[in-house]
């Protein structure tokens, strides 16, 4: 465990979600890995912040994200749920691998089936320890985790509520690019060659779920984003929207009902991911 002070900057690197130091070459061939420590996704951490206590917030500024020169995406049996795979028309498909070459200079990833997508690298999993005796790293929570939110690129700031002493931040699950929804159950999974973050403790500023102050969009506008999770997309959407209304009440000083009326005209809801054990939805408010 690494212990830091509020305001410190940390730079780390991490294997891919499957503990890999090399890309898969097939759906069955072994590959070079670090020794897995458990059955969960590969994470780096925990990072403790001196003085952090339940009721506080950790502000995590993402300063730099550098993916490896390769990536991979699986689809098919065992990745998403049977129901989702059937809805997508691949219910009987075997596990399928698409490999990616990542070109940092051009800012693109090119697949072995001939497609090219722009890079937008981010950590798919970033969260604090929950106040639970046993917790699965695959499940996103109010204190973060396997959120798979593609807004967490360099230039964004993530705010997470603290539930245990020190906060205990863990990070991993590098994604070179991902669409909202993460339909196959995996993005362009990759190592993180470098992830630079600045961590600041905000005392006594309790929030009830993850918030993101997103990087400027193409028009230079910033956005507030709140995330919600649930057993269904409806439940996740309600949680994300409720978190956004909390934020709007704080920022605007309006009543809850006035914020609901305002949100109806200026807040967008999007599917963050629909493939994890609980679903994710994000609410976006452009400010």
How would you sum up this structure, described in words?
By secondary structure, this protein is mainly β. It has a domain at 2-23 and 41-207: Jelly Rolls. It has helices at 82-87, 233-252, 256-266, and strands at residues 2-4, 9-14, 43-49, 57-67, 70-75, 96-103, 108-111, 116-118, 122-128, 144-145, 157-161, 169-175, 192-202, 211-213, 223-230, 267-273, 279-286. The protein has an eight-stranded antiparallel beta sheet. Strands 1-3-12-9-10 form a five-stranded mixed beta sheet, with no helix packed on it. Helix 2 packs across helix 3 (256-266). It is globular.
Residue runs with pLDDT of under 50 for 5 or more positions: none
Structural class: mainly beta
Radius of gyration using CA atoms only? 19 Å
Helix content: 10-25%
* Dominant shape: globular
Can you give me a brief rundown of this structure?
The protein is mostly beta strands and 287 residues long.
Short descriptors:
287 residues, eight-stranded antiparallel sheet, Jelly Rolls, five-stranded mixed sheet, mainly beta
């Amino acid at each position: 465990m690494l212990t830091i002070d509020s305001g410190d900057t940390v730079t780390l690197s991490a294997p891919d979600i499957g503990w890999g130091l090399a890309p898969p070459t097939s759906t069955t061939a072994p590959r070079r890995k670090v020794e897995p420590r458990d059955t969960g996704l590969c994470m780096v951490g925990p990072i403790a912040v001196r003085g952090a206590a339940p009721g506080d917030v950790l502000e995590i500024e993402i300063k730099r994200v550098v993916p490896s020169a390769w990536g991979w995406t699986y689809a098919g049996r065992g990745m998403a749920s049977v129901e989702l795979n059937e809805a997508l028309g691949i219910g009987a498909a075997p596990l399928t691998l698409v490999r990616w070459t990542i070109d940092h200079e051009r800012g693109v990833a090119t697949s072995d089936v001939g497609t090219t997508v722009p890079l937008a690298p981010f950590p798919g999993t970033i969260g604090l320890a929950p106040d639970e005796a046993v917790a699965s790293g695959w499940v996103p929570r109010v204190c973060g985790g396997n959120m798979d939110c593609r807004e967490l690129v360099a230039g964004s700031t993530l705010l997470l509520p603290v539930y245990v002493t020190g906060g205990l931040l863990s990070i991993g699950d590098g994604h070179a690019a991902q669409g909202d929804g993460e339909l196959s159950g995996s993005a362009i999974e990759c190592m993180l060659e470098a992830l630079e973050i600045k961590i600041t403790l905000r005392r006594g500023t309790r929030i009830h779920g993850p918030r993101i102050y997103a990087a400027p969009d193409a028009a230079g506008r910033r956005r507030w984003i709140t995330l919600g999770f649930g057993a269904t997309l409806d439940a996740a959407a309600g949680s994300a929207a409720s978190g956004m209304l909390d934020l709007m009440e704080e920022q605007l000083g309006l009543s809850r009902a006035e914020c609901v009326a305002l949100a109806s005209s200026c807040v967008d809801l999007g599917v963050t991911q629909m493939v994890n054990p609980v679903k994710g939805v994000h609410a976006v408010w452009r400010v």
